[in-house]
Structure formats: structure tokens, C-alpha cells
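Service request form, structural biology core

Requester: graduate student, group of Dr. S.
Request type: structure prediction, single chain
Budget code: on file
Notes: please return the result as C-alpha cells.

Sequence provided:
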Amino acid sequence: MGALMLPLAGMAATPKGIDMEVWKDPSCGCCKDWIALMEQAGFSVRVSDIGNKGVRARLGLPASLGSCHTARVGGYVVEGHVPAREIKRLLRDKPDALGLTVPGMKVGSPGMDGPAYQGRKDPYDVLLVRRDGSTSVYQSYA
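Core staff response, request fulfilled:
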């Protein structure tokens, strides 16, 4: 009987994914790739294929910091191709901030790293966005 209970105990101990909501254009392939990476990293993603410009504005992120998709997780805004590692760090450290962004669509960032890019990796920064819209480098990738 004890051996039968072991698998159930292991299943009960598995934490539920962190909820994330993403707004994107329905035809954007790099957004779909980024979402798949977030799911692999343990996030439970709900997708709205209605575009992201209106949501981005409503959430208070300046358009100049925009990208092709906007997410909301743990009370933070995550814009563009931000690595899961930095999102988890944000959720762990809980800075007083609006969220994170990788403005534009940087080749080599998560979701922008598929076979079409032939291994190309451009340097980019993940920016911490403060509530007043100012930014600082949260993490650099080379």
C-alpha cells in the first residue's frame, strides 16, 4: 500500500505553474515561440490573440519600450522577448517596478532564436522599468 501512495505524494508536491497572461497578434510566430519557452520554464500561460498595443498602454508601459507581445505575471508587466530566468528573478526579488522589457525584437533573445536566424545572437539588454517609466539595465546578454 505504501508503494502505491508514493507516486501520488510526489504529484501532490509538484508546485503549480506561475500564472502568466500574454497579449499578442494571432499570426506572430516569434510570440508563439516565446510562449512555448515560458511554458517549458514552468509558467501557466493564458494567451489573448488581440494584439498588445492597447494593453501595453493600459498597463502603463511607454510605447518606446514596446515589442510584439505584452505579458502580466505576478503583478508585473513583461514586454517582449525577456528570458524566463529574468522573470523568475523579478518575481523572487520583487523590486518596486512596473516590470521588465526587451524593446524591439532582438535576434538571439528567447523566441527570436529559431533556425531562421542561423545561430545569430545579437547583444541585448533586459531593462527594469520603474513606475515613472525610467529604466535601468537589469541584465545584459552578449
